[in-house]
Design brief:
CATH superfamily of the largest domain: Galactose-binding domain-like
Largest sheet: 8 strands, antiparallel
Number of strands: 19
Radius of gyration: 20 Å
Order of helices and strands: EEEEEEEHEEEEEEEEHEHEEE
Number of domains: 2
Shape: globular
Length: 293
């Protein structure tokens, strides 16, 4: 097991879901089955037959034991009251548990607002959790980072949300896999942008018309003066494997619980990344990650 430092940016990649066989729970057939989670398009969802916890679970069986440092459910429709449980096992019978043997659950929606930022009369003043109107701004992700990486072959995910208003749960993407944890953090000057993909046209009269489309986040960030011996193999292997087509999950600041869902997103690298040798045995690298929607 490798301990992961929560004070530094984390990049979850590659996504091992594509090496897994999915089973368990009760999910709709056809296009809404668990097979939807093997489609790179995040807009395609797997839908449970009901909100009963017996239906809203799955087991991902990998080809062999692999290191996992975190799990993410992206594009989900869990309610703000939902909780979820992740466990890792050595055996197909799911009896030899190596991660979370107690079956402890985590909130799908942690506190997103500080009490001092909300007026006393606000409906979520006590909880700080989002309202329904707050959820649709960007793609919603439930994020679970481990304090250390764990090697296991079978992973079980259970969603506890029996009172979900829709009566079922949708999941757009499951991401789990190793976490890239460099020995340095990204340098000041990183920029997070929300790009509006909407299109505008203007009539002769000057009236403007809008074709509303989705919004995607983009983050430009870099690392400077890294010791080549510490990071070259990690960064080279990462960028060579991802290219500009493969997905990752970006977590700029794991300790910022209030803004964790705002800052973190499923992404791909917008352009190839150069590893720049700025001095003897020192590397710098710049990245642009754009959200998949």
């Amino acid at each position: 097991m490798v301990r992961l430092n929560p004070r530094r940016m984390k990049i979850l990649a590659p996504n091992l879901i594509y090496k897994a066989v999915l089973s368990g729970g009760l999910w709709q057939p056809g296009d809404l089955s668990l097979d939807a989670l093997l489609d790179p398009v995040i807009g395609r969802v797997a839908r449970s037959t009901s909100a009963d916890p017996a239906a809203t679970q799955m087991v991902a069986a990998l080809d062999r034991p692999r290191e996992v440092g975190g799990v993410v459910l992206a594009g989900h429709t869990m309610s703000t009251a939902a909780r979820w449980i992740v466990q890792g096992f050595r055996d197909a019978a799911l009896t030899d548990c190596v991660y979370n043997p107690e079956g402890l659950s985590a909130e799908a929606f942690p506190r997103l607002f500080r009490t001092r930022d909300l007026p006393w009369s606000h409906p979520n003043w006590w909880s700080g959790k989002p309202l329904a109107e707050d959820i649709g701004r960007v793609t919603t992700s439930a994020i679970l980072l481990f304090d250390r990486s764990v090697a296991a072959r079978w992973w079980r995910i259970r969603i506890i949300d029996p009172t979900n208003p829709a009566g079922w749960i949708d999941i757009g993407k499951v991401l789990f896999g190793p976490v890239v944890d460099l020995k340095v953090n990204y340098v000041p000057g990183a920029a997070l942008t929300v790009l509006d993909e909407s299109r505008m046209s203007q009539a002769v009269s000057g009236t403007r018309y809008f074709d509303k489309r989705g919004k995607r986040r983009r983050m430009a960030f870099g690392f400077s003066q890294m010791r080549e011996a510490d990071v070259f193999s990690k960064l080279f292997d990462l960028t060579a494997q991802l290219g500009v087509t493969e997905e990752l999950f970006l977590i700029p600041n794991p300790l910022d619980a209030v803004n964790l869902q705002r800052r973190s997103f499923v992404a791909h690298l917008k352009e190839p990344t150069a590893l720049e040798q700025v001095a003897l045995r020192r590397l710098s690298a710049s990245f642009i990650a754009e959200e998949l929607i």
